[in-house]
Amino acid sequence: MYNVLIVDDEEPLREAIRILGDWTGLGVGKVLEATDGQMCLTVLAENKVDVVIVDMKMPVLNGVELLRILERDHPDLLTIVISGYNDFEYTRQAIHSKVVDYLLKPVNRADLNQALDKAFNLIAAKRLVDNDFINKNITLNMSLPKLKEKIYLSIIERSTKNQLSEAMMPLIGADDKENRFAVIVLRILNLEEIGRRRFHDDVDLLHFAVANVINEIAGDHFHCFSFPNPRRERELITVVTMKGGYKEDMAYRSIHQMNKVASTLNMLFGALILVGIGDIRNEVMGISGSYESAKAAIKGIDLLKLHGSVVVDGSEKSLNADNHSWVGRIPMIRSALESGNLQHARSIISDYSKKWGSSESFRIGEADRTLHDFVTLMNDMAMDLKANPERLPLTGENALREIGILTDYTTFGQYEELFLRLLDYYGEEIRRSQTANRPFEVGDIKAYIDDYYYEDIKISMFTEKYYLSREYLMRLFKQQFGFGIHEYVQKVRMDKAKVLLDDPALKIQDISSMLGFKDKNYFSKAFRTYYSVSPSEYRENPKNG
């Protein structure tokens, strides 16, 4: 879609162009207007415009002056000029400014749309050439960042035991003995939420945007190379290189710059992040240790005191963490789920998590480990109860997202909710396995209706519970009992209605509620339809029913 700006001080001419233009056919999204050249510049500053239609005779800033400014400040902008027959000065400026077309007053439909079509074809051709150039350059330059990323990862993961080759050392600044190195780890707490809201669930694009912000801001004082951790989607790694200076100076600058990064990311995307700054190393092979200290710094952040983004130095020592083990509670959760009592299982988790919340601290490292242990133990339990192993998650946030469990949490309360969502998922999978492994008895449906006739009973309740089709269930029930499911519900209610009406102490309104009807009138109508007498008539003479 293209955007067009009409610049003319005469409203009738602007209106005429609006009427004559084949905007829909030419693929125009917006048609903007300006009454003079100065206003045109204001509109261009606030909007993306592809083509400007300029009347040469205007007050304040005329067409000649405007074209010169556009040529200087907006060289990619295409212009179409409108003028009279004898304005040679305007024609000369139009030719100098390389306008797309020169339209004479009065403007006619064919000339206008032909000029617009010509402009849009030029734009399309330019975009094609630009994209081809960009794609070629991306192909040529993609290998270098990827190579650097692989080198850094191999050092961080300690998979490179030998010294780097001489060819690789200059790529990462390892050839200069004056360079110091550090690793900064950035963890995006609300990655899923901002990915969905701002990046159409494209996590790679989100990573790219965040890395650009880090490199641009932090790069004011030292060189940064940022990339997503391939093993942890929520984590970005930044390798910082600084030439000379004191370690303390580099550490101070790192904290200062990363606070600016955190603030900018929150302002741009609403991102909440935890930043761990690793200790400073004199040689590049030491970045593995720097990475570990940056991770440790994040793990030491107290979730109970978390209110927004946090930047911490790896030199800060973490306090000893409590050991919050699920081992003693999994048997209780299993017993509750086996008996179909999901609510009891939820209360077990809620009671346990309240103990975490009332403790002196609950650190991010504890939160990670506790979540990992819960998923591992619940997987073991679910598999032991014959749940489908293909529907059970592996450990890790990426695996949880694949089964529809969002793992964002920016507060302790949201962290608690994550466990309840997981429990609901496991409870459903266990219920599925129990249903699939137990022979189906159509009498179970009849027994349920006999016991719960006063509820709003729907066939979908049974199709979801037994994983059988609606048609099959209805046919099977009728073959077994001679009634359709809905017919049987009505029969049980009407049989019960007679028994209740025989008790003169009960009001018809009360009986209606006891049978699950919406109101007295609805019950009376159903009773009359079934027995050909109203409830009052039946009460007066039971033999009529």
Description:
The protein has 545 residues and is an alpha/beta fold. The protein is 55% helix and 11% strand. It has four domains: 2-126, Rossmann fold, CATH 3.40.50.2300; 172-313, 2-Layer Sandwich (Alpha-Beta Plaits); 330-437, no CATH class; 443-544, Homeodomain-like (Arc Repressor Mutant, subunit A). It has 22 helices and ten strands. It has a five-stranded parallel sheet with strand order 2-1-3-4-5, sandwiched between helices. Strands 7-8-6-9-10 form a five-stranded mixed sheet. Strand 4 (78-83), helix 5 and strand 5 form a beta-alpha-beta unit. Helix 4 (63-73) runs parallel beside helix 5 and helix 20 packs across helix 21 (520-531). Keywords: Cytoplasm, DNA-binding, Phosphoprotein, Transcription, Transcription regulation, Two-component regulatory system. Pfam families: HTH_18, Response_reg. GO terms for molecular function: DNA-binding transcription factor activity; sequence-specific DNA binding. This is Two-component system response regulator YesN.
Short description:
This protein has helices at 11-20, 23-26, 37-46, 63-73, 88-96, 109-156, 191-198, 203-218, 247-269, 287-299, 330-338, 342-357, 364-384, 397-402, 412-437, 443-451, 459-466, 470-481, 485-501, 508-514, 520-531, 535-540; strands at 2-7, 28-34, 51-55, 78-83, 101-104, 179-188, 223-228, 235-243, 273-277, 310-313. The chain is an alpha/beta fold and 545 residues long.
